Amino acid sequence: MPLKLHEYQSKFLFREYGIPIPQGRVASAADEAQEVAAELGGVVVVKAQVHVGGRGKAGGVKVAKDAAEARRHAENILGMDIKGLRVEKVLVDPGADIKQEIYLAITNDRGARMPLIMASMEGGMDIEELNRERPEAIIREHIDPIMGLQDYQMTFIASAMGMPRAQWRSFGKILRGLYQCYVKSDAELAEINPLVITGEGELLAVDGKVIIDDNALFRQPALTAERDTSDEPASERQAREAGITYIKLDGQIGCMVNGAGLAMTTMDMTKLYGDADGIGPANFLDIGGGATPEQVAAALRIILSDDNVKCVLFNIFGGITRCDEVANGILTAYNEVKPDAPMVIRLQGTNAAEGNRIISEAQIPNIISAETLTEAAKRAVAAVKEGA
Amino acid sequence: MSILIDKSAKVLVQGITGRQGGFHAKLMMEYGTDVVGGVTPGKGGEWFEGKPVFDTVRTAVQTTNADVSLVTVPARFAADAIMEAAHAGIRLVICLTEHIPVADMMRVVAFCQARGTRLLGPNCPGIMTPGQAKVGIIPAMVATAGNVGVVSKSGTLTYEVGFAMKNAGIGISTIVGIGGDPVIGTTFVEVLEMFENDPETEKVALLGEIGGSAEIVAADFIKNAMTKPVAAFIAGRSAPPGKRMGHAGAIVDGGEGSAEEKIQALEAAGARVAANPEEIPGLLA
What we know:
The complex is a heterodimer of chains A (388) and B (285). Chain A is α+β, with helices and mostly antiparallel strands and 388 residues long. Chain A has three domains: 1-22 and 97-231, D-amino Acid Aminotransferase, Chain A, domain 1; 23-95, ATP-grasp fold, A domain (Dna Ligase, domain 1), CATH 3.30.1490; 234-387, Rossmann fold, CATH 3.40.50. Chain A has 13 helices and 19 strands. In chain A, strands 1, 8, 9, 10, 11, 12 and 13 form a seven-stranded antiparallel β-sheet that branches. A four-stranded antiparallel β-sheet of chain A has the order 2-7-3-4, covered by helices on one side. Chain A has a four-stranded parallel β-sheet with strand order 15-17-18-19, sandwiched between helices. Chain A starts with a strand and ends with a helix. Helix content of chain B is 34%, strand content 23%. Chain B has nine helices and 14 strands. Chain B has helices spanning 19-31, 57-64, 75-87, 102-114, 156-167, 188-197, 214-225, 259-268, 280-284, and strands at residues 10-14, 34-39, 47-48, 51-54, 68-71, 92-95, 118-120, 126-129, 133-136, 145-152, 172-177, 203-209, 230-235, 272-273. In chain B, the strands form two sheets. In chain B, strands 3-4-2-1-5-6-7 form a seven-stranded mixed β-sheet, sandwiched between helices. In chain B, strand 1, helix 1 and strand 2 (34-39) form a beta-alpha-beta unit. In chain B, helix 6 runs parallel beside helix 7 (214-225) and helix 7 (214-225) packs parallel to helix 8. The longest helix of chain B is centred in the N-terminal third of the chain and has 13 residues, at 19-31. Chain B is globular, with a radius of gyration of 18 Å. At the A-B interface, helix 9 of A face helix 4 and helix 5 of B.
């Protein structure tokens, strides 16, 4: 899963690129929050640090007029459950005198295959909502990925979005800083929302969000160390550590498939034939190419760790993956795990005949074989119905 | 005929001395692909199955007149390997490598475009013109020669559909794997246009998935510029939003890229969309 930085991590990263942020600090206990608030003096904002949108509405962001109130807010917010996630940290920021809220972000535009800057004087709100309601309020500018951001583009963006001239210079610095941050951090998204113009005419990044490209983590050791996996289900973390891509869903048919596109398709088929009876996929799982018996066993254990699973569907189309090896893997896994749930096995492609022979000779009582994907999906649905 | 490759293609394998590269180079040669050599920096002068190994793509091209290159090197070296091939004048680069950073791919795509090199992938299974040549990892058994062009974001799903077509007696002109990454060298529309212009391709099968809008752009093209019938399947109807389904590009993000919107767009464009990929042969008959 992509590496999402918390608000405080994002803003502290922005600061390294010369972007002005409020001089707040993080606290993981109410005492600590009070200390930070006392040090800052005056009005502060106590903000829950969790990877979900809408934390303000959930009561995770509170303004405090002094340190004692900041402490009370922190007591309430720390440990709070916001959309299933427990708040472990709060950011205590000095209150800002906000005259105008601006949206500014850089993201990968996959269609254009270029970085895209999005900027709007109507910041503060959710950008997807703004995009639906008033798309014309968002200025969009693509950046040549080889040449990088040019000065004339900064002028264009400031002018087109209606940035007051008095702020062009400081806005240009922030935009350049954000682009540097996006490039140097291998970000998929570097977003400031809102960037505010204060009563004194200063620009300040009051909230921020950065998502790092997982595939670039090999050259981002410092950012990798910032990963907070608390919102990742334990089963998904185990799978990630075993080199298997697994995503938990809420159906009854555990799916073990080679290849991401076929794994999605196999899920879709269980839903296509099971949806009328409330039956569907329990997970996405791609065991990858050339799966070893150990990997198959690990994958089976992960699938069966989900109590909702009533049947396991193996759909293997052998290319590089050899069906006889997978068949041996299934037997090894079966003997280790001894699942009660029936298993529907469909092996096709490279060495399929040999693979099917291995399975049938093992004479495992609750194994159901299938020739085609359609047959396999229908049999898995039927097995869940029978077991119900 | 076919698109992009036929038996005249002279193919290099970058990473031929690696486990993956060597394994697939052999299978490609067995299939009849004219593999003229390989490239592994530091191993120039060695031989692989009777083919010369070079240190650089430039020397390999000068010596062998290769015009196609298969990149099988690990992710952190792959962007450089693609650019090296484009710099050396390779016409078509096919990159199998998964997990290349998107930032690298944005620069690489621009680099290839500036040099007139077509890139397939990354994170793709390659390309196969049945009976003539294959470059990549598509198993020989999944297709026979014929008149249906296949273009797909996925590997094993493509094998599944190719195999179902073969069992139904339907042959394939060329299978093109474009890859499941967010930023790829060749998109659906470019391949559809090549199939539309290929006299030997009469029908097209398009295999898409959730994430991005390439299938929507393809639907526009089908509606406005294609005369040949298109059958399609979109994977990921049951995928939850906000989760990346294995492929780096397969994510429904902020309500964009869902299977439903793609299916609707394709149907509105006149494509026949299967709910089950094993129904594709029926839609092509």
